[in-house]
């Protein structure tokens, strides 16, 4: 089981199952803006495996594109997961909110066509191009 929480600690959760790989560094503009960082680090998790321990009532969401909802802790803004209406049983989970080591490492840089220009990818992970150029939105 993995435990995690939002930045202020008022929302805490447990993941009662495996993360569904791969762990991905997503460079799309939405993940950059949502995380406030150069990329978002995500993996899948079965929706049934995510259990809130505290603060579930503090969770809120917004529709980032048709049928895709991004859930965050309203108390501090921490992004926790996204749910796509086309596949509601698997969530796109933000690994930065984990308080425990998932014992997995990143396997892919995703949508590097949108990466921030100050980021240099110097590892040997596979990369998918795609995504609009930096500063534009799809």
Would you kindly provide a written description of the structure presented here, covering whatever features stand out?
By secondary structure, the protein is mainly beta. It has a domain at 2-22 and 41-106: Metal Binding Protein, Guanine Nucleotide Exchange Factor, Chain A (Beta Complex). It contains one helix and ten strands; from the N terminus they run βββαβββββββ. The strands form two sheets. It has a seven-stranded mixed β-sheet with strand order 6-7-8-9-4-3-10. The protein has a three-stranded antiparallel β-sheet with strand order 1-2-5, with no helix packed on it. A hairpin with a 6-residue loop joins strand 1 (2-5) and strand 2 (12-15). The chain is globular, with a radius of gyration of 15 Å. It starts with a strand and ends in a 28-residue tail after the last strand.
List keywords for this structure.
mainly beta; Metal Binding Protein, Guanine Nucleotide Exchange Factor, Chain A; 7-stranded mixed beta sheet
Strand content: 35-45%
Q: Remind me, CATH topology of the domain at 2-22 and 41-106?
A: Metal Binding Protein, Guanine Nucleotide Exchange Factor, Chain A
General form? globular
- Radius of gyration from the alpha-carbon trace, in angstroms: 15 Å
Largest sheet: 7 strands, mixed
Mean pLDDT: 94
